[in-house]
Each structure stands twice: as C-alpha cells, then as structure tokens.
C-alpha cells in the first residue's frame, strides 16, 4: 500500500496494449434492475473510498474464474 504522499499505482499495460488497474479483492455484490451481477472492487494501492461497482463481464478473467468459491450469490433463490 502506498504511503500517504506516494501517488497511486499506474495502470498495468496488457499484451493487447490496453490498460487495466489491478484488483485487490471483491468486497461486495449486488444485482442490477436488469438482473446482472455487479461486484464492488477494491483496487490495489487505492483507499476503500475509491472502490467501484463493476459489471461481471468487465471483471478480469482471473476473478471471474474464482468467484464461484469466493462468493455465493446472496440474492439467488
């Protein structure tokens, strides 16, 4: 975690040339009105007030692959 006077980490450059921020953890889940899952993401090197809601299809693949064992959908019947 950076010290208070250090800038936050820069985004990572992916093999396709696009940029992405590193996910530290998923700290929440909710369903949209359309029934899609959104995850509250904690970003590496950023404070919790910078967490953001990300639609499941926009999560990095390594998180999608592991969500099944980390979270069970609390809204599922």
TrEMBL record:
Residues 21-59 form the Chromo domain. It comes from the Eukaryota. It comes from Guillardia theta (strain CCMP2712) (Cryptophyte). This is Chromo domain-containing protein. SUPFAM superfamilies: Chromo domain-like. InterPro entries: Chromo-like_dom_sf, Chromo/chromo_shadow_dom, Chromo_domain. Pfam families: Chromo (PF00385).
